[in-house]
Amino acid sequence: MKFEKMHAAGNDYIYINLFEERVDDPAALSRKVSDRHFGVGGDGVVLIGPSDVGDFSMRMFNADGSEGLMCGNAARCVGKYLYERGLTNKREIALQTLSGIKQLQLTVADTGKQVIQVRVDMGPAMTDGSLMQPPQALLSEIVEHLLEAAGARYPVTFISMGNPHVVIFTEEIDKLDLPLIGPGIEHHPLFPQRTNVEFLEIISPSEFRMRVWERGSGETLACGSGACAALVAAVLTGRADPAALVHLRGGDLRVEWNREQNKVFLTGDAHFVFKGEVN
After folding, report:
1. Are residues 47 and 102 in the same domain?
2. Structural domain tally of the chain?
3. Is 228 noted as a catalytic residue in this protein?
4. Catalytic choice (181, 223, 246, 248)
5. What's the CA gap between 116 and 267, in Å, rounded?
6. Which of 33, 70, 71, 210 is catalytic?
């Protein structure tokens, strides 16, 4: 089976073109090939395929085999893949995901061959987890709710970007022990379907630093939907402007929230790493 490794801000996945390949058990495949010692290595597997309701579809599986609802970084990579590998010449793509259709806007170099960056319409931000299907949070709304995990209490703000996120505002972000803190919040009973966790350090109202613990993958270098959730949480709690630059360990992302229309936009680059074959 042929694959291509791609990353966006260090969030790396193994991409498989379902127009050419067949995957019968994507969960098992993701567990196998995502292993960084015995497999290809990545945060998971992304399947690129056809769609009856959009231009193309994307399915994302975490390193533990669980299927994710949406990944903004993966969506940007899919946009680059579709254009540069000749599956489309469109610069605006309707991408079907488990959390709905996401609109991709591609910025292409003057040569017309290379995608420089991709802007994703991530859709609305939701603060009421009980409206998710299945319901994500046992409380209807969570804004700086004190949650006890890993022997401490954390003021958490819940935001859904089609997938669940908990945002925690903190300082000295590099000193945090995420392998200790992350699992306790990810698997907390308040979140029956588990949750992603973002730790956010405010530099200014338009600039943040962030680390992320992703459900099913552990700490990753970046999370696009997490950066969107972080901005929304920062605006809701009076800490930020509706547009900001987010610094992650793998790179920078730009996020905007049109609050009137409740639309969040994510912009960043995407990169091919290598291609190969796996048995």
Report:
1. yes
2. 2
3. no
4. 223
5. 11
6. 71
